[in-house]
Specification:
Strand content: 25-35%
Radius of gyration: 13 Å
Low-confidence stretches: none
Helix content: 40-55%
Strand order of the largest sheet: 1-2-3-4-5
Mean pLDDT: 89
Order of helices and strands: EEHEHEHEH
Distance between the termini: 30 Å
Number of helices: 4
Structural class: alpha/beta
Shape: globular
Length: about 110
């Protein structure tokens, strides 16, 4: 899993590329999120467009990240939840847990409403 970080409009965007699966992907995501939270970032957008696959560990890490962020007053939202990832989220009935967007500007603007 490769994670690239950038900032736009005060929102930290993590571009995930690869497999969000047990071992490599879930650990990389956990470390990236914890690092952002420790740095005081409170608006985090995960771009999942290039996520090739996700298993239950990857999904569990998304939920754990959201929980950790909320405990510190931060928000994590999802961008470009593509078909493979969408199916996993839908099958586990977690679709309502995450705010997700198909447009980056709309996603960024949503942080000012929370």
């Amino acid at each position: 899993m490769k994670i690239t970080q950038r900032e736009r409009g005060g929102v930290t965007i993590l571009e995930l590329d690869g497999r969000l699966t047990i071992g490599e992907g879930d650990i990389a995501l956990r470390e990236a999120i914890l690092s952002l939270l420790e740095a005081g970032e409170s608006m985090i957008l995960l771009n999942l467009r290039e996520v090739k696959a996700m298993d239950s560990s990857g999904l569990g890490e998304l939920v754990a990240s959201k929980t950790a962020a909320a405990a510190q007053g931060a928000s994590i939202k999802l961008l470009h939840v593509e078909d493979k990832v969408q199916r996993v989220v839908s099958m586990t009935r977690l679709i309502g847990v995450f705010e997700s967007f198909d447009d980056e500007l709309t996603a960024i603007a949503s942080f000012s409403k929370t």
